[in-house]
Amino acid sequence: MSDEDSMENGAxxxxxxxxxxxxxxxxxxxxxxxxxxxxxxxxxxGPSAQPEPVPAPARxxxxxxxxxxxxVRAATAAGLVGALLGAGAVAWRTDTLPLVGPAPCxxxxxxxxLTDLFGDRRTEVEEQALQGDPVGQGDSYGQxxxxxxxxxxxxxxxxxxxxxxxxxxxxxxxxxPAEFLTAGMVPLGDGxxxxxxxxxxxxxxxxxxxxxxxxxxxxxxxxAMGPTGLDLESDYEQEDRAALTxxxxxxxxxxxxxxxxxxxxxxPATPPAPVERHKTDAGAFCGxxxxxxxxxxxxxxxxxxxGGDGGPARVCEAxxxxxPAVRLTTVTDAALSEIFSSGTLRTGLSVKGSKGYGSxxxxxxxxxxxxxxxxxxxxxxxxxxxxxxxxxxxxxxxPGYVAAEAERIGCGPEKVTLPGS
Length: 421
Prior knowledge:
The chain is an alpha+beta fold. It has two domains: 102-258, no CATH class; 278-417, no CATH class. It contains nine helices and 17 strands. It has helices at residues 74-86, 104-107, 111-118, 175-180, 207-210, 237-258, 334-337, 341-345, 393-408, and strands at 64-68, 122-127, 140-150, 153-166, 186-187, 194-196, 200-204, 216-225, 278-279, 303-307, 313-319, 324-331, 349-353, 356-361, 364-371, 374-382, 416-417. The strands form two sheets. It has a nine-stranded antiparallel beta sheet. Strand 5 and strand 6 form a beta hairpin. The longest helix has 22 residues, at 237-258. It starts with 63 loop residues before the first strand and ends with a strand.
């Protein structure tokens, strides 16, 4: 990956003002009343208030398929423009021609970001216009997919999605956290409400732009590169993470503009260092004081990795040399915690606590507590069987994890009572 372009310095901006309907692009003032099912603005919660973006012009969404060539000569590209425009496609070479037509993914991704992601390979872009899904519950707004090619062989693919995270029906309570709330992810930095890694990144849009209903999570832009669960250490890990961070911030700014809202996020100056695996501290499991790992599991959970410290969610994974056997997650962002609403109310055996409630469903336990800063979710998931437990780790670890983590974040004391206890 090219490192010729440095990341833009500056702190994150906060919520902007909505001036248009995200579903239609029609500009109109927001009504002074409770938001309906369709996204409308509401004040962001105090403790987790998001940064205020600087003004940016509105733009009409465009449905297009772009054929982007970064290797053709200037003269060839100029000759292709007229023919390709008639077919709904555009070709250009970044270093010799100005950008022809809108940039990929809602007129957001710059040349330097595309170079960092794909090098000088030819790329094809498939992009949906941003509008509410007319078939589903309106949670999905669109996606953009970029594929790079060497000759005729696909080499790398990046997919960006814009969607509102669901909590009421439970559709985003399992697959999305498994992909975007993992121990390999770190905070975007500079106060941005999201996480990033070398293969995944996500950023929540300002609630003053999108609005948020009860039992729904934030509206996010997320970006995925490579298969789910593929988290290998690489010589390009730092470069790929920086490129994905820049891409998700640029895409979020494009969506904010497309929705008719004002403001932009600023790309963080320096993302945090990658998360490394360490030998498990059995007396302070997952780096949490007072959380002791039972003796029977210390051999199977010998390596630990903790990511997300200081961000919307802190994630700990433990297991052998590579594959984690258990994942423990603490979600402190109030909006993000809502995606687990269904999991705490509708599934499994009921769990009671001194300041909360939850459930245990097989290999997964979820507990929601009321803290001074708002709702917090604690989750324990068994991802693989161990020598001493085929499916009982979630039940065994939840009480100690909740008690110790609640103390760590200033939410204790918290005592969980398991069903049958």
